[in-house]
Amino acid sequence: MLWTGTDGNLASAIYDASVKVMTRDGMAEEKVLEAVIEEVQRVADVRKEFRTADYFDFSFLRKAREQLKAIGWRP
Fold it and tell me: How does residue 39 score in pLDDT terms, banded at 50, 70 and 90?
């Protein structure tokens, strides 16, 4: 909430919508993330435009996946 500047209800709605479409490693496709943002905006009646990068940062996950792949780790 503090990082995104949203209220508790909006942050909760974002989480609830997002958790349903995440993979085991926490990643999600860009189109899914865009749909999550659009749905939350609709529900919360928010008209401001947001990019997925405003809410989702998977850079750490991508780096970790690359490192695990390099050593041959499998879940």
Answer: confident
The two tokens of residue 4 are: 């995104």
Say what the pTM is.
Answer: 0.53
How far is 9 from 64, CA to CA, in rounded Å? 31
Give 51-73 pLDDT, tens digit per residue.
888 888 889 988 998 999 999 98
Question: What letters, b where the CB count within 10 A reaches 16 and e where it falls short, cover 36-66?
Answer: bbeebbeeeeeeeeeebeebbebeeeeeeee
Residue recorded with tokens 């860009």: 30
Q: Please provide the DSSP assignment of 42-57 as one string.
A: HHHT--S---GGGT--
